[in-house]
Amino acid sequence: MNELMQNALEFIASGEDNLLKKRYNASVSDFFKAIVTLCDYLIYKDMKFLPKNHNERFEFLKNYFNEIYLKVFSLFQLYRDSYNLRLKKEDALKLRDLAHELRRTAENKKSI
Known about the structure:
Blueprint: H1 2-20, H2 24-47, H3 54-64, H4 66-81, H5 89-110
């Protein structure tokens, strides 16, 4: 459990570093990895279940954490675009905002 949070924080730090260096595709990828790791943390914290892949994660989020699902799924295409397209700062900032929002949510659950 603690490993998930440590991994998420590492991905966020890497995303921030890549954002500062104007490596927007790498930043998007790092922030999305942080987002899915934080989703896994929240799922595990509440349900004691760890998704094995994106499909399983999205299905679980859709059924049990719908508000988070809607936010994450809406940014999934941006993450996928980072493989083939050149992304912009605005794209990275969208994922950054959600990564930090989910980090705060996870940290609040940690103290409960």
